[in-house]
């Protein structure tokens, strides 16, 4: 028979496609706190993260960190920001620090002062270190394993048969 994926939906959702109000984890994850290949939420973490706080290979949101970031405040390899950016290529309206910066204040003392006093850039800098990623992954996996303990073996997100 043909296999159809049924999305996991709930307050906490874990499945191939997960739609959770508080937490979602899956290939496609949508929720308050979303983790997946494509994640959309207030906190989005994944290959493509879209949210208020977005972390991942490609991140789009207000505060973003990752490989490529587009946001108001961005810490990324390629960083495009409305206010301030740090990255190898850093483009922002006001402040930019990086290898190739483009902003009103690019690699200046004013840019450095603004970014050094920003809580976001402090935390993003810690997260972007190797130990920061290790800690982030541990924080992500712990709730997932706890949630999986409460999932019944009968509740699958895969249904066999035509609909």
Outline the structure in words.
With 163 residues, the protein is an alpha/beta fold. It has one domain. The protein has three helices and six strands. The strands form two sheets. Strands 2-3-4-5 form a four-stranded parallel beta sheet. A two-stranded antiparallel ribbon has the order 1-6. The chain is elongated, with a radius of gyration of 18 Å.
Structurally, the number of domains stands at: 1
What structural class do the secondary elements suggest? alpha/beta
The count of helical stretches stands at 3
Helix content: 10-25%
Mean pLDDT: 87
Series of H and E elements: EEEEEHHHE
Main pleated sheet: 4 strands, parallel
Walk across the major sheet and give the strand order: 2-3-4-5
What's the structural blueprint in terms of helices and strands?
Elements: E1 3-5, E2 8-14, E3 17-92, E4 95-102, E5 105-106, H1 109-116, H2 119-127, H3 130-149, E6 158-160
Parallel strand pairs: 2-3, 3-4, 4-5
Antiparallel strand pairs: 1-6
Name the descriptors.
3 helices, 163 residues, two-stranded antiparallel sheet, single chain, 23% helix, alpha/beta
In short:
The chain is α/β, with parallel strands linked by helices. Helix content is 23%, strand content 61%. It has helices at 109-116, 119-127, 130-149, and strands spanning 3-5, 8-14, 17-92, 95-102, 105-106, 158-160.
């Amino acid at each position: 028979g043909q296999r159809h994926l049924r999305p996991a939906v709930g307050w906490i959702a874990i499945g191939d496609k997960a739609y959770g109000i508080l937490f979602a984890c899956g290939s496609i994850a949508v929720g308050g706190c979303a983790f997946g290949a494509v994640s959309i939420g207030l906190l989005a973490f994944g290959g493509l993260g879209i949210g208020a706080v977005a972390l991942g290979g490609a991140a789009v949101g207000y505060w973003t960190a990752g490989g490529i970031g587009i946001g108001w405040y961005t810490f990324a390899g390629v960083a495009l920001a409305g206010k301030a950016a740090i990255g190898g290529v850093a483009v922002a309206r006001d402040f930019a620090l990086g290898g190739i910066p483009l902003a009103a204040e690019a690699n200046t003392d004013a840019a450095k002062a603004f970014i050094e006093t920003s809580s976001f850039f402090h935390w993003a800098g810690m997260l972007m270190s190797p130990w920061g990623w290790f800690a982030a992954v541990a924080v992500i996996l712990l709730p997932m394993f706890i949630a999986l303990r409460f999932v019944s073996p009968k509740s699958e997100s895969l249904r066999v048969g035509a609909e």
